[in-house]
Each structure stands twice: as C-alpha cells, then as structure tokens.
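## tool: complex_structure
## caller: assistant
## args:
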Amino acid sequence: MDDAPKKKRPDLSAGEIAPIDRHESLGERAYTSLKDSLVRGALRPGMKLTVRSVAQALQVSTTPARDAITRLIGEGVLVNLGPKTVVVPELTLAALDEITEIRLALEGLAAEQAAAKVTPEDIQELERLQERINRGLDEARYTDVLDANKDFHFLIYRRSGMSRLVAIVESMWLQIGPAFNDLYPEFAQSRTGVSNHLFALRGLQDGDAAAVRAAIENDIRSGYRRLSSLIISRQEGVE
Amino acid sequence: MDDAPKKKRPDLSAGEIAPIDRHESLGERAYTSLKDSLVRGALRPGMKLTVRSVAQALQVSTTPARDAITRLIGEGVLVNLGPKTVVVPELTLAALDEITEIRLALEGLAAEQAAAKVTPEDIQELERLQERINRGLDEARYTDVLDANKDFHFLIYRRSGMSRLVAIVESMWLQIGPAFNDLYPEFAQSRTGVSNHLFALRGLQDGDAAAVRAAIENDIRSGYRRLSSLIISRQEGVE
DNA sequence: ATCGTCATTTTGTTGCATCAAATTTCAAAT
DNA sequence: ATTTGAAATTTGATGCAACAAAATGACGAT
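## result:
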C-alpha cells in the first residue's frame, strides 16, 4: 500500500516470537472482503461469482481475486457447480446437520476451555455485546444483531487459546452465514438466544466450564432448530 | 491434460446431480503433491519452501505452485516465519495439545457416526489394512505402517458421511504429519495402536458406537503420549 | 567470535496476455 | 413455447515479466 507507514521490525525482546507485523497482501484483503460480504449477506446463496467480477468489484486484478476465491473454495465456503461456475452454496439440511455436529463438538470444547481463562474485563465486554444484541433486536436492526452475536461468541472462543479451533469454527460460521443472513429476519422474533447467552455469562462468572459449555450447546441447538425448520419449509415451497 | 479422454456429459438421469467429472488443475495437483510430500516426510519440520523451488520441483510455473502453498498456509500446514519465508512448522507441545483436543472431538464423533454405517466389506478392508500395519511393523517398513494406518482411520471417518469433518481431520493430520514422520522410528516399537485398532474393529462389528469412539480416542491419546514425550525430550536436548 | 552496515540476491505478489474449455446466447426447426 | 445445434462470449487456469520488500551474504570494526 503506497501510503502505509514503514513497518516496525518485529519485537523479539519478550523472549517469544511476536506476531509478524506486515502489510496485508491484496489477495488477503480480497479474501477478507469476500468473507465479510458473505457474512453480511451481500453474497447470497445461489449467487455466482467469477474471478473477473470479483476483481472489478474490489478494484484489483484477477490474481488476488482468484487467490481469494480459490481459498474460499478450499474452505468449502464457495463451491464449484461446474469447472467454470463458482457459487455461494445453498444450505441443505444435510449440510446444516453436519456443520451443527461439528460446531457442538468444537464450540463446546472452546467454551469449556475459555471458562478458566476469561478475565473480568472480558465479561464486561460480553455484557456490552449482549446489550448491543438486545438493542438490535428491539430496533429490528438485524445486521447489528448478527455482528454483535458473532463478536460475543468469538470473544469467548478466542479465550480458549485454541487458534486452530477458532479458525475452523469461523469457517463453519461462514458456511452457514449466507443462508443464515438470507433467513434471519424470519426467525429473529425469538429471543431464545438471549437467555443462552445470559447462562453462558453466568457460567463464565462462576468459572463453571460445564455450564458454559451447556449454554453454548443449547444456543447452537436452538439456532439449529430454527434454521432447519426454515430450510424444510423453504424446500417444501420450492418443490 | 493433453492426453486425457474426452469428458462425458454429467449424467442427470438418476434425478440427482452427479459429481462433476473434470480435469484436475495444475494447482490442485501441486497441492496434492505437496500434501503427499508432507505426509511422507519428504518435507520435514523447519524446511523452507519458496514458490520458485516448488515450481521447479513439480515442473510447473509459479502460479500453480503458489496456489498450492497459499492453500497450505491457509490450512495451517505451512506457516510464514516472515513475509517472504514459508516453512514447515516445528511441532510444539502447545500445538500438539490443541490438535489432539480437536482430533478427540472430531475423530471421536466420526467414529460414533461410522459405527452405524460401515458395511461388512468395510470391516474386511479394515482387517486387511490392519494386517498391512502388522507386517509393516514386523519388517520395520514404517512408511507402509503410516500409509496403512492413515487408510485405516480414514476409511472409518469417511463412513461417517461427514465430508467437512473428514477434511478438517485431514488438515489436523497434515499438521502433525511432518513431525510424526520425523519422530516415527523412535516410537514405532510400541504396538499399543494395534490393540486400539482391534477394539475399534470389534466395536464396528458389534455396532457399538461408544466402543468405537472409545477405541479411537484411546488410540489418539496413546499417540499423543508418545509424541509429547518425544517433543519434550527433543526440546530438552536442544536447550 | 560477534555485530553493524551495505551490497547483492532472492522473494512473494501482482498485472496481464493467452488459451482451451465451458457457458451462454441466438436462430431455426418443430 | 420448446428444443436443438451452432456461434459467440465468457470463463478459470496458466505462464511470465516486473517490482518493491525482505533475506542473505560479505566485509570491516571491535
């Protein structure tokens, strides 16, 4: 980036190698932009992407655009319907079933691990995020709800210290995100998630790993029930 | 590929869309080749890769080589030590701990699901694979042991029908594979894994999901104990 | 032997032209 | 209106040159 400040040499003084402080390549930025579009619902299930259209939209050349698309295909977030046809996949019930099982296993594990590691500051931040969720629901601003909900969950998951797990979970969220966004207003009326979040917060305050895990699992199952019934009714409408 | 047969049009007559019959791109082949090199131990922890050296080794241009490297970085199998330094990472104890927790969660789940789905033919194939493992141990042919062991586990995991989970597990195996290969002859003397495999086979024959899961989890824990003690002793030697 | 500086070399990233394969469009036939 | 076949267009993949940034190596000073 031509106006980026000169990078500082990595600080090794802590005796532990610090994260690399470096420019983000155009390919990485394209990848991040596409992920954000998927999560926000700007790219909806069924939509087709091409290297050239993404390049044009992001104002880059085909190489970084293709980097990003290739990476998302590798993650299962985008799929090939033909050798030259890349789309955002529709979420099937089978896919949702599998993704939910994986999420229960991994998000549950992360929640347990996090219970021993969150700080009082973390809990305060989670409370603030829950307030944002509540206000978003009150004001029917579903984008805010989704953003704050994700921030809530991932603050917890990151505290597990399991960066690989967090990356896997993020990929799972990305695979349901477009469908979730597509369907969201239909089931946002329910506030079941709010109570699960409050149970999770309680468990974190108490350092009760099993309770945090149970709350997160219930939250996942609750979301699953709603999404799956909508997928079923959506499929019945189509057939 | 210039000598590939002309592709048949997808058969839609079954009322279900068939898998796409298509060429594999050079980038995908490069990715597969690199994965294979990592699993086989041809790429060892600490080794540095560059786009140009991979391109030369695989006799392709930089674009598919870079495709493959980028994808493996995205999966955590290769890492950047600097903006222009890509390496096969050393396996740390912390990384092994995390990967093992993820494996327990996901491979355990896959084992449970597979218990209801394997066929008598599958069980026969698993028995054959176990014989290959035994012969490999007898004859100190550790490459055969590793190959057959992987085939054994992944035959089970694929029967879960959870393709996303299988892909994640494969990525976890790839992250420990180079270190595993590096360390393998030192701990191949133990045959603990053999009994775990036999328990898994027994459970599959009985349709006992909990028993299959327990056997797979024990196998993972047993491997973890050996790897971790070797990592610790390796680190002590270095320090 | 170690450190700092500077020169040299190497690196990942990017843009873009090209190509064969795939997809889409269009017109004619039914 | 639909189907079919051919033409036109678009596509992903690839090779490669160029570039700025990073890494490496050489050399002198300590």
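## assistant note: Residues 25-27, 60-64, 67, 82-85 of chain B lie near DNA strand D (CB under 10 Å from a C1'). The longest strand of chain B covers residues 79-82. Handing back to user.
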